[in-house]
Amino acid sequence: MFRGIHVPLVTPFDSSGAVAVDAIEKLAHHVLDQGAAGLVALGTTGEVAALDPAERAQVIEVCARVCEERSALLTVGLTGNDTRSTARALRELPSGVHAALVTVPYFLRPGERGVIAHFEALAEESPVPLIIYHIPYRTGQAVGAGALRRLGRHPNIAGVKYAVGGIDQDTVELLGDLPEGFDVMGGDDAFVSPLLALGAAGGILASAHLETRSFVDLADAWRAGDVERARQLGSRLARLSAALFAEPNPTVIKGVLHAQGLIPTPDVRLPLVPATSEAVSQARLVAVHPGE
Ligand SMILES: O=C(O)C1=N[C@H](C(=O)O)C[C@H](O)C1
Q1: Which of these, 71, 75, 198, 223, is most buried using a 10 Å CB contact count?
Q2: ω before 271 within 30° of 0 (cis)?
Q3: Which amino acid residue places its CA nearest to atom 10 of ligand 1?
Q4: Which CATH architecture best describes the domain 4-226?
Q5: Is the ipTM of this complex over 0.95?
């Protein structure tokens, strides 16, 4: 189900601080024009925690409209560390949403058995397929290859957004033996190229707001076995990702998109603070001169 590059959209704000719905629509078309396979609404990059329920509904509505028009896949991010309320949020997803990206329960650290029980319960209730968001450096919860493989055998669990901060033993084991119909999507921008080389189906990458076409080419090159091209693109794009993540995501990306005239302000909501002008200039420089 998951393949190619999916862009977790930023939520732009206008000068009054309101969600700039027109800018979301423009950005959505912009990345899809460049070959993105889908959009992710309400990810970390979309500052979901700082949006109120009405704003979240607005973001989903505009993304669903664009995805419908463009025959693209819409995934919506859901973060919770309680199974009952997460199941309720899944049941309440509006139509037009094709999948839900659900974070491993954070902070609580329920252990692997708890994580398995959580996702199996959610998968039974969810009206759309789930993609597990595994990001232990944010959630505090390890989940090994065996547990992910078991979850991947559930018919309503379509994949994992894999962001363990590098390539480790579990990464290699997982990608060496994937359940049928269970896709691995790279979720650590700087490591997407090696993950694709190991057999990931694509990536959910905030960096792909910029150079979307090049990220799509990277995934295509690994799939086609064009190793030379994939390595070159991979190292160039990893430099771009490093510059875009030099300060907390999505502050630098918003700074660059604003400088390019794609969003009305670079503003983020507290506790995030806007990126420094140095970080934004450096990221713009790397985007234009990737060798520097
Ligand atoms: O919102 C997302 O989805 C992503 N979030 C990650 C993060 O903020 O750490 C980065 C990734 O590119 C996508």
Answers
A1: 75
A2: yes
A3: 206
A4: Alpha-Beta Barrel (3.20)
A5: no
